[in-house]
Each structure stands twice: as C-alpha cells, then as structure tokens.
Amino acid sequence: MATGWGSLLQDEQQLEELARQAVDRALAEGVLLRTSQEPSSSDVVSYAPFTLFPSLVPSALLEQAYAVQMDFNLLVDAVSQNAAFLEQTLSSTIKRDNFTAHLFDIHKQVLKEGIAQTVFLGLNRSDYMFQRNADGSATLKQIEINTISASFGGLASRTPAVHRHVLNVLGKTKEAAKILSNNPSKGLAMGIAKAWELYGSANARVLLIAQEKERNIFDQRAIENELLARNIHVIRRKFEDVSEKGSLDQDRRLFMDGQEVAVVYFRDGYMPSHYSLQNWGARLLLERSCAVKCPDIATQLAGTKKVQQELSRSGMLEVLLPGQPEAVARLRATFAGLYSLDMGEEGDQAITEAIAAPSCFVLKPQREGGGNNLYGEEMVQALERLKDSEERASYILMEKIEPEPFGNCLLRPGSPARVVQCISELGIFGVYVRQGKTLVMNKHVGHLLRTKAIEHADGGVAAGVAVLDNPYPV
Ligand code: ADP
Ligand code: MG
C-alpha cells in the first residue's frame, strides 16, 4: 500500500504557506467548531482540526465498506426488533453496568406498555480501520457501529473542497479531481424527512435533543438546514426542556411547547453524564411516545459493544439474518476478534491471552464518545483487578487493529502544523427507515475519514485526538 505525499511533507516553508491557505479555506467552507472556552456560543468559533493532505485509502476497501453498509443497516434493525436476543445478550452486562441497565429498563418498560411508534429511523455510522497484512496489503476491520448521535456527517460534506484547494494550489489538478464528493448530511436529512413524511402530520416538527454546551453545532446545523430546505422545521431542545414542557396526549402523540413532534433526533443521551434523574424521566417520556425516535431505545442498545461481541459468535448472524448468506459473509469479513468476558472458561481464557500479549488487545466498557477504552499496561492492571469479579462482564475484549502508519500534517487551532506518523479510521454513514415490518429505505449516504497520530491509542475528533480527513483513493 502506497502511503503518502512524500517530499511534500519535508518542505517546511511550503507546508506553512499551504497550511495558512488550507485553514482559510476551511473557515470559508464552514468546517467549524465552537471553542472549548465558549462551547455554548457561536460568537467566537474556529476551524475543526483537519489534515493538510487527504490520506491514501485503497479503493477496494472503500468500496467494500460502502457495499456492506446496507447489510449493517439490516443487522442493526434486526437486532433492535429481537427482544429475546437483546435480553440474553445484555443480561450479564446490565447486572454490573448501571448505564446500560438504565437504558435496558426503559426498553423493558416500553415493551411492556406496547411500542406506540410505527415508523423507525436508523442513522448510523460504521467505523473501520485497515489492518496491515504481512504481504503489505490491508484488510477492512470494523471498530464499532454508532447507532446514536453519529456525528461529523455535516462537516465531512465540507472538507473535500479544502483538500481539493490544497492540491490545486500545488498545481495537482488531476489529484484534486480524485477527491470524492461527499454529502452525508444531505442523506441523513433525507432519512429524517422520510420518517417525518411517514409520520404524516403536516405541521409536526423534528425535535433535536441537544446539549447545552455543543461545540459541534455546525455539524448539526448542516442537517437542520437540509431539513428546512424541505420545509421541515427543527426545534432544538434539551432533555430538561422535555421534562418541563413535553407531554403526551391520550394517543401518545408527543408535544413540545404545544407543537406536535414527528421525529426525535438525539444528539445527546449516549453517555452517563448526559443523564440526571430528571433526564432519564424525559428519555422515558420520549420513548413512550409514538414519535419516530432516532434511535429508539432498542436501536441504541443494538449499538452496544456487548452486542457487537455477541454478533461475532459463530452462527449468530445466520440466526439474525436468515436466508441472507451473502449479507452474512460480507458482514463477517469485516469482524475483528471479539471476546466475551462473562464469568466462565471462555472469559478466563480471553483474560489470560490478553495479559500475556497486551499489545494485541483492547479492553472496552459499554461506553461511547471516545476515551473509555484501555490499552497496554492499563488494560493489564484492569484485567488483574476484574479477573475474579462479575464486573468483568460489563467489558468486552477486542483484537487490536494495527494499520500501517503514514505521514501527514495535522492542523489544529493554536498549534503549529505538525508532520507526524498517522493512522486513519473510515466511517460509512447508513440510513434506513422501516414502517411496521416494511423496510422503505436502506442506503449508504457518505463517509467520514478521521486521522490521528499513532501515539494515541484511543480516538475521536470530539475527544480532541483525531482530525478530519478525506480518503484519497488509490
Ligand atoms: P467509542 O464508542 O468511544 O468511539 P470505539 O470502539 O470507537 O469507542 O473506540 C474509540 C477509539 O479507539 C477508536 O476510534 C479507535 O481509534 C480506537 N480503537 C477502538 N477499538 C480498536 C481496535 N480494536 N484496534 C485499534 N484501535 C481501536
Ligand atoms: Mg468510536
């Protein structure tokens, strides 16, 4: 696999000038974040960190990731409808993990009362790394799938123009033309619009559940803007607002400030810190309603790492997607090694192996948002501590993916441009809509490439580690 831009990365003076141009273009295109000092205000904003050059990605792996996305959509949708599978899979985890237990409680309550919602909307992002093989080739391996608040579809629509600009400045017009156009926010909005339409109430709103401190607001606005262009109005509210001003009528229609809500789009609610007792109450109210939740609570649970691990068990995909051997084969080809830490022999063995070869494994709790996984010596210490406790069932072990590093230059507000050895993570956005038992939309709608310096084990742009990038197909 060819790895880079070679001599361009060595000319410091040229890099500095290119970086200035790239940053100005990024600002002009709207590749923006609010600052960490002022996360609730758009008075002062800056650019979202990004790579100076697009990173080389084998076309075949890009195509493979796109081709398997509709299968992942089907799989998530199947898991979310399979209450027995969710119950069995999460039973050991929820004994020891309060957050997952709370989500599961709501899921059970909704099932008991009967699900009022008839239209289901999934907006997800499946993330991959490129495992380096001995012969120099690379294999696509899934890191995880995000079924709630999958972000950066808006900003990823704007970064291709920045990388084309950089290459055009260098006179590399042919290379610039190879950068793929990308518009996930449009596709995500299309899914929301379809769900809104099927809900079938002309004046109903889309309710975006937002955080008070939201640095990534421009990413969300990109979707809001696409919806408004279709004459669908979005209201942004916090969980606290839902507690105070949200209500259900006798048909469990959801109203917010007196306005009917067709679709609830969560950009909050995926971490324990997002929930006070009051916010859990608000989530339950939303889940009980007949509004289309994106995601509904079962689909959020389908995105847990424990579910990911159980799906990799031999025979499991065949049960969940009966009669679809080709989809099963495409899905399985992307699975890395995943190991249960439930009490018992299988878990004991996984722990022994991870302690013996810490660089080959990652220890993952049931968390989202970056910065929660344990690697290396920290992982070993945690495993030693957890070994004899049932708490270990709230974690999973995963094979550590080792991509081939390459050079790129990372640009961040307030830091000098830095040429470093990097690895990338590719995300593909998927959208599906189901009405009752009928799937009415199943699509892939774009990609996100994030790149980070190799010294960071964990990732995430919001976590301050990875930066936005574009694949340069080779
Ligand atoms: P989160 O829900 O916090 O995003 P992830 O499973 O995506 O959790 O892990 C966070 C980051 O950790 C990823 O973006 C990636 O950089 C790194 N990571 C996770 N799993 C692996 C793995 N199996 N091999 C290598 N790196 C990993
Ligand atoms: Mg992730």
Give a brief outline of the structure.
This protein has helices at residues 12-29, 59-67, 69-80, 83-96, 98-113, 153-156, 159-169, 173-177, 184-199, 217-229, 239-245, 277-288, 297-302, 305-311, 316-320, 325-333, 345-356, 376-386, and strands at 32-34, 45-47, 50-51, 55-57, 119-132, 138-146, 205-209, 234-237, 246-248, 254-256, 259-266, 292-294, 338-340, 361-365, 395-399, 406-411, 418-435, 438-453, 467-469, 471-473. Helix 9 packs across helix 10.
3D architecture notes:
- With about 475 residues, the protein is of the alpha+beta class.
- The chain has 18 helices and 20 strands.
- Strands 3, 5, 6, 16, 17, 18 and 19 form a seven-stranded antiparallel sheet that branches. Strands 7, 8, 9, 10, 11 and 12 form a six-stranded mixed sheet that branches. A three-stranded antiparallel sheet has the order 13-15-14, with helices on both faces.
- Helix 10 links the parallel strand 7 and strand 8.
- Helix 1 runs antiparallel to helix 7, helix 4 packs antiparallel against helix 5 and helix 5 packs parallel to helix 12.
- The chain is globular and about 65 Å long.
- The structure holds adenosine-5'-diphosphate (ADP) and magnesium ion.
- Adenosine-5'-diphosphate (ADP) binds next to strand 5, strand 6, strand 14 and strand 15.
- Adenosine-5'-diphosphate binds next to strand 5, strand 6, strand 14 and strand 15.
- Pfam families: GSH_synth_ATP, GSH_synthase.
Report the total helices: 18
Distance between the termini: 9 Å
What does the radius of gyration come to? 22 Å
Overall pLDDT confidence: 96
Q: What can be said about the biggest beta sheet?
A: 7 strands, antiparallel
- In terms of DSSP E residues, the strand content is 25-35%
Bound molecules: adenosine-5'-diphosphate, magnesium ion
Structural class: alpha+beta
| Shape label | globular
Given as residue ranges, the uncertain stretches (5+ residues, pLDDT < 50) are none
Number of strands: 20
Task: Please bin the fraction of helical residues.
Answer: 25-40%
Domain Glutathione synthase substrate-binding: 205-302
Subunit structure: Homodimer.
Binding site for ATP: 144, 305, 364-373, 375, 398-401, 425, 452, 458
Family: Belongs to the eukaryotic GSH synthase family.
